[in-house]
Amino acid sequence: MSWITARRRHRASGYAVVMLGLAGIGVMYASFTSAGSPASAADPGVASQSVAQGKYLFSQSCSSCHGIAAQGTSQAPSLIGAGAAAVDFQMSTGRMPAKEQGAEMDRKPQQQFTQKQIYEIASYIASLGGGPAIPAASQVSANGANVGLGQQLFAANCAACHNIVGAGGALTYGKYAPALNQSTPVQIYEAMQTGPEAMPVFGDGAITPNEKRDIIAYITGTRTQANPGGLSLGRVGPVTEGLVAFIGGIGLLVMTAMWIAAKRRDVRVESHE
Q1: Whole-prediction pTM value?
Q2: pLDDT (tens digit, 9 = 90+) per residue, 142-165?
Q3: Is residue 72 pLDDT above 50, yes or no?
Q4: How far apart are CA 10 and CA 244, in angstroms?
Q5: Is residue 239 included in any domain, yes or no?
Q6: Residue 34 Cα to chain centre, angstroms
Q7: Tens-digit pLDDT profile for residues 11-30
Q8: How many domains does the chain contain in total?
Q9: pLDDT digits (tens, 9 = 90+) for 119-128
């Protein structure tokens, strides 16, 4: 046992223990962050096949803008480290592949690729440099979510751009915060994780996964809420609704005044005759 004791007293033994500990933490972190991602298959053979197919699809449809190795060009940014979640969000919403560049990429009603093909391209991009993974179903489920807390978090972090009920709104330089009424829970989670367009990234340090689930539950819940005030006018907020009511009321008063003036003029003409 004396030789073990001697090795423990060696100067490098402490550094070796620290390195082993860091390596173990890294392996554990990678296993937790990659768990549940549709872009990462459990079978290595399936995973490699998915990456290979994704690479082929990327070279055919995306490399002209993003570069043959996804390194980015003057037309589009690098995707190395963007993660599978960013790919799934942009392609599942129809924003990518983009037909033309603009201040804001619009959501399209139909996506160009199947969901399987999107997962394959996402797997390829994830293999280049990691990044946020596609969330699992349990991460976006409304079961057990705190809708009240979700409303508070949404009001504090999202409503300034997206409107308190997710109806969207205009930003500067031709950009806008899109409406969330068509976004799926997975897409909302991915948007918070990746920060598309002008949206900031809300990592797990800023908004925890459970809080993201609360926000998603609130957003999806607003779609089925009744309108106790009657006509909602798109649920764009009380200021805009008040302006519409004011303009409509003023217009009605002007038309009434013009009608009264026209009637009096007709009475005067008849009296002179």
Answers
A1: 0.69
A2: 899 999 999 999 999 999 999 888
A3: yes
A4: 79
A5: no
A6: 19
A7: 555 656 566 766 666 556 55
A8: 3
A9: 999 999 999 9
User: CATH code at 69?
Assistant: 1.10.760.10
Residue 15's pLDDT is what?
58
- Tell me if 47 is assigned to some domain: yes
Q: b vs e for 99-116, b when ≥16 Cβ sit within 10 Å of the residue's Cβ?
A: eeeeebbeeeeebebeee
Tokens of 125: 């991009």
Helices vs. strands in the chain: H and E counts, helices first: 12, 2
Measured in whole angstroms, how far is the alpha carbon of residue 45 from the centre of its chain?
A: 31
Strand partners, 170: 176
Do 171 and 209 lie in one domain? The reply is: yes
Grade residue 36 by pLDDT with cuts at 50, 70 and 90: very low
| Domain housing 7 | 2-34
Most confident of 35-44, 201-210, 264-273: 201-210
Tell me if 232 is assigned to some domain: no
- Phi and psi at residue 142, to the nearest 5°: -80, -5
Q: Are residues 149 and 98 in the same domain?
A: no
Is residue 56 assigned to a domain? Answer: yes
Query: 48 and 128 share a domain?
Result: yes
**Angle at which helices 84-92 and 185-194 cross, to 10°:** 130
3-state DSSP call for residue 177?
strand
Residue with tokens 């046992």: 1
Element (H, E) at 130: none
